[in-house]
Write a structure and sequence with these properties.
Elements lengths: L17 E4 L6 E9 L2 E9 L3 E5 L5 E7 L3 E7 L13 E10 L3 E7 L2 H17 L6 E16 L5 E16 L35
Antiparallel strand pairs: 1-2, 2-3, 4-7, 4-9, 5-6, 5-7, 7-8, 9-10
């Protein structure tokens, strides 16, 4: 369990760069820390779908997240005991690392319930296929986003965007996920596995 330090805080480039997803407009944005004339700044660039990346699903973390305004994350890996909620401001979410040759290694997190649900779907597919793909990591294809409409208790509705992604194959674990940034994963032609619907439920992650 540890606290998260955002790429948007002060400091240098020794942190994993961020890939942000907006549940409001469906954008994927790379946030990079760059040193400009001795001062660290955050530069952002949007990336377009479709794209593929390997997801380090074996190391996915779940936990409590808040931004007030600095990020405050209390996370555990799958299989660990669920942490206590630090405050009413914290929301349940996930954090995972992903990588491809275009964006390098990135960290994606979200406390959106709808996005979290889509991550659970990926986790089920990973659990269903990992035994048949030892030593490999799942390749996730992001084809775009989908529109979700929620009806509130007062009858009003809210509209959100969620990632449209699927586990499309498996690839050898790239060295860059373990810190060797000179090696990039080849995710262009993964071996497609069978990914039957898994029986993993949300709470099963912590059993």
């Amino acid at each position: 369990m540890y606290e998260y330090q955002s790429a948007g805080n002060g400091g240098g480039g020794d942190r994993t760069p961020i890939l942000k997803f907006s549940a409001k407009d469906g954008s994927f944005v790379c946030a990079d820390r760059v040193n400009v004339d001795g001062a660290w700044q955050t530069q952002e660039r949007e990336i377009d779908a479709p794209f593929k990346a390997v997801f380090d699903m074996a190391e996915v973390e779940m936990g409590w997240m808040a931004f007030n305004p600095a990020p405050d994350f209390v996370m555990v890996k799958s299989g660990a005991q669920r942490p206590e909620k630090p405050s009413d401001e914290h929301k349940w979410g996930f954090r995972i690392r992903l990588a491809n040759k275009d964006i390098g290694v990135r960290e994606l997190s979200s406390s959106s319930k709808n996005v979290y649900t889509r991550m659970i779907d990926l986790f089920k597919a990973y659990e269903a296929g990992k035994a048949s793909n030892p030593g490999k990591v799942p390749v996730v294809e992001v084809t775009g986003t989908e529109r979700v409409v929620q009806t509130l208790s007062d009858g009003k509705t809210q509209t959100w965007r969620v990632p449209a992604w699927t586990l499309s194959g498996w690839a050898d674990r790239p060295e860059m996920l373990d810190g060797a940034t000179e090696t990039t994963p080849d995710v262009t032609a993964p071996t497609a596995p069978e990914t039957p619907a898994g029986s993993v439920q949300d709470d099963d992650i912590f059993k």
